[in-house]
Every structure is written in structure tokens, then in C-alpha cells.
Batch of 2 targets.
Target 1
Amino acid sequence: MVKVAFCGLGQMGEPMAARLLDGSQELVVWNRSTERGDALVERGARRAASPAEAAAGTDVVITMLSTPGALEEVVFGHEGVASGIEAGATLVEMSTVGPDAVRSLAERLPDGVDVLDSPVLGSVSAATDGTLKLFVGGPEDQVERLRPVLEHLGTVNHLGPLGSGAAMKLVANSTLATLMTGLGEALALADGLGLDTSKVLGLLAESPIGVTAKSKKENIESGTYSPNFKLALAVKDVELVTEAARGAGLELRLGPAAQAWLEAAEEADLGAMDYSAVIAHIRGTEASLG
């Protein structure tokens, strides 16, 4: 049995941690809001008072946090993971923070601590079902050693050296942002041309943008955007995409356009809603959390 510490029990982290319990891993959990771990503790997980306490004596520490700043605080802040993790353990960084943040983290951890980056692609339902796509970066022997643990969460895709998984997540998120805002502009055009939204969505569902149109059809038609992935986090992710492209000396045009739409939607107080609420903002229609 592998002893795992899981730090960050948010919308995605809690069902992911539950999957590890289902796989009979010995689990220690930490979250800033302690009540988030109640259901896991009832099932046999141990609650830690700090990230350092969670990391102490474990084989694997998983971080699943919302922003690079949150990751920095949880790992290197007061009573952070770095002050508790021991040589021989592996930190698996699953947040969406970009490859530079992952490599910086690895450079500053105590000697003898291994690091893998493994951000995930998928929604809450995929986290619950264990069908996430894991984008993993790091040495192949370390990936294979932890594959049995990671496979409780989803499909392991080893992309290359440390930082490769984080880079792939930015690539994937760049397409999600442009698809969602592209669908919003398409529906705004349909509105302007007097077309019926339901019929338009039905036909777009059979087009190249079909997956996005199908998955968000109910949200769009009801005007209710309960979050599977919060718009505020999508803003953070697309900002990381833009920064990474700038650092690579690339000129992207669609990414910044998508970023502008998402930032405008956040400024219109839609940040707590699902990121598909950007469609309502683009169209000028009502949006609610439900």
C-alpha cells in the first residue's frame, strides 16, 4: 500500500482523492477549508493540520491547487509541504500552473525529493469516474513507478521530461478557450441573423465544433451555468497560455482574443459560473448559477 498525501480538495481535488481511497491507498488529506475533507475522513482518510504534516512520512504528495500563488504558499509557505516531505518521496504536481512554475518548484525542494508534473484534462464527472487524461512530465522510471497510483485517476500520458505535462495542459487549454469563445461568436451571429438557437445548436452539434456545442447545449438554452470549470479559472489558464507563448517568442492571435472575451465576462461578474458563461456574455443574454 502506498501512503499518499493529497493537498487541495477543491471541485476536482476531492473526487480525485476519493478515487485513491477507492484504490485502497493510505490517504492523508489537507485543505485550507477543513470541512472539504469531511466525507473523505469518514471513509478512512486522515486529516492533517498543515501541508507539512500531510507530507511527513508519505511516499507521494499530490498538489491540486487553483493558481501558481496557491501552489507557492502550500509548498513553500509556513508549514508547507517542503518542510515536511522526506527524501525518497515524490511530489506530483497536478495543478495548472505552467512548466516554468513546475521546474522552479523542483529546483527548490529538499534533496532526494522527486517531482512529476501531471495536470489533468477533464471535468468533475471524469474526476469522479477516474477517466481523466493525465499529462505527465518527468523521468520514465519515476512515471512507471507511480503509474499504479496515477491510473486510479485516469489515463496516464507520459509526454517527456519534467514540465512536459504542464506544457501540454497549456496547449490543450488554448484550444478549449478558443472553441468556447468561437461558439459564443457563432451564436451571436446566429442571433443577429434571426436564427433559432435550438436549431442552430442542433446543427452545430454535427459540425467540427460539435463536442463543445453538445456539452454546453443545456447551459446555453437554460441560461444556467453551474460550474464544472469556473470561468475565473479559465481566465487564469488562458493568461498562462499567453505568458508561455510570449516566453517562447510566439505571436498568437486567437489566444489573446479568447482571453479578452473571458476577462470581460469575469469583469461582468460571471467568474463563479461555468466558463461556458462567456457565451452568454458574448451574446448579451442572461446567465445565472441556477
Target 2
Amino acid sequence: MVEVSVESIRVSLINQQRLVVLRENDSQRYLPIWIGPFEAEAIQMGLQRTDAGRPLTHDLLGNVIEQLGGRLVHVHVLDLRDDTFFAVLVVDVGERRVEIDARPSDAIALAVRSEVPIYVAEDVMDKAGQVPAKDIEPEDEEGGGLAEGDRDTLGLFRDFVEGLDLDRPSSSES
């Protein structure tokens, strides 16, 4: 398992589809996953620690797990089949460890609210992970080279855009 963090939530300018970008904690490898607008908003609110006043759906799920004596340990994106990602919530209930099937977007939204780790299976990262390009050195507006971090960011963006399959944006997650 590879531990990841939510790097960003992106919106396609063409069709308004949302994408959560997970970044491997110990490298520059990224995993983009198409998600719905409501899940994107839930993840963003969780990252910003926004209080909605009343429990939203992901808050409700966390409350149910807790009230039933469980504890969310982590979430795990464990598979990629037919362009669809699969995840589980890993919950300890007493002496038992339970894995609950979940869409990655819902699992991530719950993880950021509960402040638990997010893991991705190594084979999923190998299949769908992306590494920023390092062979192109863009220049800044003054004609000089960009800082190393800026080059990595631009290379990642370029790789990401070139790798988009805009004909099938909603097939990544069911």
C-alpha cells in the first residue's frame, strides 16, 4: 500500500467534471480519479475544515460508525477494473476489522473529515499513477529558467492534460 494525500480538486473547463488528484506522500507520483461534483465539494469542505452547521452525508456516516462502536482506521483504493476505481473503508469494531465497500470519492471525503490515512494499492498506482515530466525545461516570463518546483508543477499539468480521455470522462468511477 502507498500512502497518499489529496493534492487538489480540479474542474474540467470543457464539461465541468471534477477530478481529485492524490499525491504519493514519498514521491512525485500522482493518481487522478474522476469524481462527482457533490463528492468534490464534500472533499473540499473536509480539507478546509468547513463547518456546515449540521452533519452532511459524509459526517453522518462518520457519526454512525462512531456511535456503533467503530473507528475508521484508514481508507484504501484497492483496485482498478474497466476504468473504475474501487475502495474500502477499513473500520475497527471491537476486536474485528471490517472492510466496507465504498466509492473512492466517498471514502476520501470521509478520510479527510476523520483525519485518517488514505492508501492506494501499489498495482493501482503502477497502472494509473502519473509522474511529472522532467525532460522539458520551460522558461519564465523574463526569459530565465523556472524554479525546480515550478518545472515539476508545469510538467505534471502538461502530462495530466495530454493524458485526459475527454471522450469518456465519467467512466472512471461508478
